[in-house]
Amino acid sequence: xxxxxxxxxxxxxxxxxxxxxxxxxxxxxxERMQAKVIILAIDLNEKRTxxxxxxxxxxxxxxxxxSACQQGLPVSYHIAQNGFEKEIxxxxxxxxxxxxxxxxxxxxxxxxxxxxRPKIGAQLITVREKGTAHFV
Length: 136
Known about the structure:
Low-confidence stretches: 131-136
CATH topology: Rossmann fold
Number of helices: 4
Largest sheet: 6 strands, mixed
Shape: globular
Structural class: alpha/beta
Mean pLDDT: 83
CATH class: Alpha Beta
């Protein structure tokens, strides 16, 4: 009997933005699809400093990951060490990513993902607001 391989969802997340809709949507999808979620925290605007938001985001993501793991969802949280494109394409290859989910509330992330779209084979979902998604 063939066991289907686990689905993998990547959620690139700009740590300078407080839009968590993409993360929430990915976790809800993962629960329904029995998928693993990989959250990638990346700084898309290194010139701007806003440690208050960044600290809040890391804390909120840590709480979300812990809650998801307690519910039995496989979730990992990575902090980007390299450039945006290298991190995304590397994780897509290493983790066999099926789906990328990101919040549309962050224009920098939306623009970066649209620019990367021709270089990736995974499907993109843009989450505009809680409960609303747009398949790209």
